[in-house]
Amino acid sequence: MEFHGVVPIDAPDPSVESEARLRAVSFPVVQLTPRPSLTRSPITGFAESLGPAGREDSTVAFTYTLWRHPEDHADPRNEIELDERTRRAIEEEPPWGRPTWLIAQARLLKYPMLWEAVRTTWSAASGTRRTSLPQSLMDHTDHVLRNQFREELGLPPGPTSDTRWQVTPAAVSDATANLDGRDVPALQIDTDPFVYSLGFRLDEHVVCTSVLPRDSLPIVDLTFTTDR
């Protein structure tokens, strides 16, 4: 659900629709193990592709707010550095007002965000590019780098033909992940200076990948639970 221009004060909370869509997903979905330093975004990311035979693949992505001092969310040390214009846009109410849910979502922009930190992807056919765990892990890593670390990578605004920053198959190595309290075989990308990536397979049709900023690793318990 998207709103453009002025959001009416009585506009419905999109998290309700998002939660209903999440509960209707037909495959197991994985999240980071809940803990005080993490708050999962109320809006889940969804993507899918359709083919002649119907749905070919579907992805569920979770984003999190990171609390460096979870014992007190109001502690200003939790906040990221913002310019004055951005801070005013978050904190000041327009004359026409905003829905309560939009005020709450805007305030979260003051804190670090683990954007699309965990993806679960289902594919109708096994043995495809989408169900290749190494490829899924590289795709997710590149996606986060492209969208969250453009300045650090020296990428210009808009499309670019520069692919030197992208991860390669040589960067993928064996690892272990903890899912629902048990160790499972996994793959990792531990060579990038900005992010760490970990992925594992749930079954022949479903893979899970996680990409986290390196500076969040001391705070995040990198273990996973099945959300549904």
Walkthrough of the structure:
This protein has 228 residues and is an alpha+beta fold. The chain has one domain (14-226). Helices cover 20% and strands 32% of the residues. It is built from 5 helices and 10 strands, in the order H-E-E-E-E-H-H-E-H-H-E-E-E-E-E. The chain has helices at residues 14-23, 84-91, 100-107, 133-148, 150-153, and strands at residues 30-32, 38-40, 45-51, 54-66, 113-123, 172-179, 182-189, 195-203, 206-213, 224-226. The strands form 2 sheets. Strands 2, 3, 4, 5, 6, 7, 8 and 9 form an 8-stranded antiparallel β-sheet that branches. A two-stranded antiparallel sheet has the order 1-10. The chain is globular and about 55 Å long. The mean pLDDT is 91.
Layout: helices, strands, pairs:
Elements: H1 14-23, E1 30-32, E2 38-40, E3 45-51, E4 54-66, H2 84-91, H3 100-107, E5 113-123, H4 133-148, H5 150-153, E6 172-179, E7 182-189, E8 195-203, E9 206-213, E10 224-226
Antiparallel strand pairs: 1-10, 2-4, 3-4, 4-5, 5-9, 6-7, 7-8, 8-9
